[in-house]
Each structure stands twice: as structure tokens, then as C-alpha cells.
Amino acid sequence: MRLEGKVAIVTGGAAGIGRAYFFGLAREGAKTIIADINEKAAIATVREIESKGGKALALKVDVSDPQSTLAMAQKTADTFGRIDILVNNAAFYMRPTITRAPFQELPLDEWDRVMAVNLKGPFLCSRAVLSSMQKQKAGKIINISSDTIYFGVTTMAHYVASKAGVIGLTRAMARELGPWNINVNCIAPGSTFSEDPDDLERLEFRKQRVSMQILQRLEMPEDLVGAVSFLTSDDAAFMTGQTLNVDGGRVRS
């Protein structure tokens, strides 16, 4: 197990892709924390890990709120004594569902909310855990972008812009935090089927995207776990400021 003895926070880890990250890091031996605005779902997911002998913690966190993110970091440090890994996964996209409309028709309050969660959230969460990682002179921060940034997908300008900003934030943070041996990298998933299995409309939408990929099948949350496990381990100790496209070969750059 590559993460034995490590402490990992996954924001938005109670459902969907974040839930897969949470279980993947736990399987690698990490003590895992779900930081999610849905406290009930977070607690239920943590109980699954604990029932298998793992150590985990559920925290209700609003990643767009500075005080909430600071409380997250403090509670994690108080409980487990350190913070080694942060996966900035929480995003405003499907829960709740964003408005799909031409950019000039997007609600202004929703633009602000998307930016607050998707871009300001990783900024605030990273700031909150920074002092712990600086004291250790080690840490791994993984930001989650999206392959939509390469295509300028229509009717979701707020989401695409926020995820493009995540890559810029990753590169800036990597340069600044390198002196403390803190690695900051990014993953850009493709169209991932992470909704409930009975969501047939979303399933059909994602099936249409498969034709654009080299690997001709739906991308599932578990397809992203290996990249996160790798980037949070010592195997990626000399990687920072990078973005890995994990999308079945839809983006080739």
C-alpha cells in the first residue's frame, strides 16, 4: 500500500467521482477524510470504510467559505496529527445541476456560485492545509479540472472557465510551493458517468461522447482512481505543475 500512514482529504468525496477517490486512497492505506457539504452522505460513506477496518472522518464543509475550510484543516490535524494529501474535487456541476445556456443568458448569480466552488474552493482548501504541509516540508495537492477546457464546450461557459482557471492555479501554486517539497498537480477527466444508474438521459449523452475517444467505452469514476493514487504517492515525487488528461484519449496533446 503506497499511502500507508498518510492522511488524505477529499473534498466532495461523498458521491460520484469523489467517492471513488476516497475509496481508492483508503485502499492504498491512507487515513481518509470526506469534506462534503452533504454531511449525511459523507457519514454513510465513512461508515463503509470503517466497517472494513479503515480509519476515516466525515466533515461538513463548504469549500467556498474560508472559515469552513480552516475548520476542516484544524479538525483533520487534531484527529490524525498531520495532513499529507488534499484532493480538490468538490465542484458545482451535477449536484446541483448547472444551467446549460448561451453564455449571454447564464444567470449571473450562478456564474458567481460556480466560480466560488470550482475555483475559489481549491484556492481556499489549499490555503487551509498549507501550514501543516509546510511544517512537514512535504505534501501532495491534486486539483481536478476537466477536458471541456480544450474544446470550449458550448452552453456551459461558467463551468469551462472555472475549470480552465484550476489549471492556471495549479501551475502558480506548484511554483510557489516547490520550496516546501509540496507537489501540486492536476487531473482533467473526460465525460464521466458518475450519476445514478437510472439517469438514462445523462447516460445517452455520455455514450455520444464515446465516439470522440480512442478507447471506445464509457468513462467511469474508477477509471480516474489510478491517476489520483499515482499523483499522491512517492511514485510521482518529481512531478509538479502538471495536468494529466484521463479521458480515454479524447484529448491528445
Describe this structure in words.
This protein has helices at residues 16-27, 39-51, 66-80, 108-136, 157-177, 200-210, 222-231; strands at residues 7-11, 31-36, 56-60, 85-88, 139-144, 182-189, 243-246. 44% of the residues lie in helices and 15% in strands. The chain has one domain: Rossmann fold. The protein is α/β, with parallel strands linked by helices. The protein has 7 helices and 7 strands, in the order E-H-E-H-E-H-E-H-E-H-E-H-H-E. Helix 1 packs across helix 7 and helix 3 (66-80) packs parallel to helix 4 (108-136). The chain has a 7-stranded parallel beta sheet, with helices on both faces. The protein starts with 6 loop residues before the first strand and ends in a 7-residue tail after the last strand. Helix 5 (157-177) links the parallel strand 5 and strand 6 (182-189).
